[in-house]
Amino acid sequence: LKNTLAENKDQPAVTADGIKLELLANINGAIDCSAAVAMGSAGVGLFRTEYIYLTHPDVPDEEEQYIAYRDAILATPGSTMTIRTLDIGGDKTVPYLGHTHQEANPFMGWRSIRLSFEHPEFFNTQLRAVLRAAAEGASVNTQVKLMFPMITTVEEVRKTRAMVRKAAQQLRAENKRFAEVPLGMMLEVPAAAISINDMLPLVDFVSIGSNDLVQYLMAADRDNPKVSHLCQPLAPPVLRVLATVIKACNKAGKPVTLCGEMAAQPRAFVLLFAMGLRSFSMSASFIPSMKELAAHLTEESCRTILRRALTLRTTSAVKRYMAEQLAILA
Ligand code: PEP
Ligand code: MG
């Protein structure tokens, strides 16, 4: 694979047989947007908002958050900006939101949307700030979307929608400028993957958080090197779940993206494309080389590879097989 940034960044994200892909960037704030644009991303697929909170001694107020989101939106004109609500807990904690003692199982505990629900006033502040910032998207032709992390149950999806509705009603009553936005869920909990068909009617889009989905499927901490041999995106059960989820989203006509690390791993990229995934979100620095890889792929050849990969029973067999196939493809 050629990996020269200058050559690849303006190349369209399109496969050898002319299928258009959407390659998006993962960001932590407006400061990352110029790199996302420079690397030729089609927009932002994941804005991790926790950094705004982690860098504050107290909960950032609505105005501070509004400015942070607005600045990111304005810095990515003519594209998409997918903002994720606070995903704190697990490995990242903030004392002012009640993280005063270490949980025995932080990744299975009080994190992410679960924590937002217990702080409805802070959650409301974030929702209001996003909806207000979204109104600025029109001036630069950028579509803002909002998504919720760690969704586990159908009730949680309903509750997030109700809370967004409430924030919008407040802003309307106050005559504040805001925009309605598509609402999506992150799919990163096995229970949600199993319930995907119950959840799809309630969401406008899905973003697969494979970093968490893999760790929860394999019951292997994503940050613990002792179990990294288990926490593998190419593990056969992981591939089966991903194939099922992507198929369900496509069948329902709901846009689906994958924003975990595997989106930028060539072996996984080929398999995800073959499963029907057309939108990938990754660290901006990987986008040029993924465009280059895409230019070597056809749907037919990748589907043949996927069919064979799905018959393999071990992660090492999948890895070996995919390494051989990549050497032939690109
Ligand atoms: C993921 O879980 O794959 C994801 C993108 O979210 P984060 O890495 O922020 O948990
Ligand atoms: Mg996650």
Automatic annotation (TrEMBL):
Active site per UniProt: C259 (proton donor)
GO molecular function: kinase activity; metal ion binding; phosphoenolpyruvate-protein phosphotransferase activity
Family from the record: Belongs to the PEP-utilizing enzyme family.
One Gene Ontology biological process: phosphoenolpyruvate-dependent sugar phosphotransferase system
Name of the protein described by the UniProt record: Phosphoenolpyruvate-protein phosphotransferase
Domain PEP-utilising enzyme C-terminal, first and last residues per copy: 4-297
Native source organism of the sequence: Anatilimnocola aggregata
Class in the EC hierarchy, top level: transferase
Cofactor(s) named in the record: Mg(2+)
Catalytic reaction list: L-histidyl-[protein] + phosphoenolpyruvate = N(pros)-phospho-L-histidyl-[protein] + pyruvate
EC number: 2.7.3.9
Residues binding Mg(2+), per UniProt: E188, D212
GO cellular component: a single term: cytoplasm
Compartments in which it is found: Cytoplasm
UniProt keywords, alphabetically: Cytoplasm, Kinase, Magnesium, Metal-binding, Phosphotransferase system, Pyruvate, Sugar transport, Transferase, Transport
Binding site for phosphoenolpyruvate: R48, R84, N211, D212, R222
Encoding gene, per UniProt annotation: ptsI
Role according to the record: General (non sugar-specific) component of the phosphoenolpyruvate-dependent sugar phosphotransferase system (sugar PTS). This major carbohydrate active-transport system catalyzes the phosphorylation of incoming sugar substrates concomitantly with their translocation across the cell membrane. Enzyme I transfers the phosphoryl group from phosphoenolpyruvate (PEP) to the phosphoryl carrier protein (HPr).
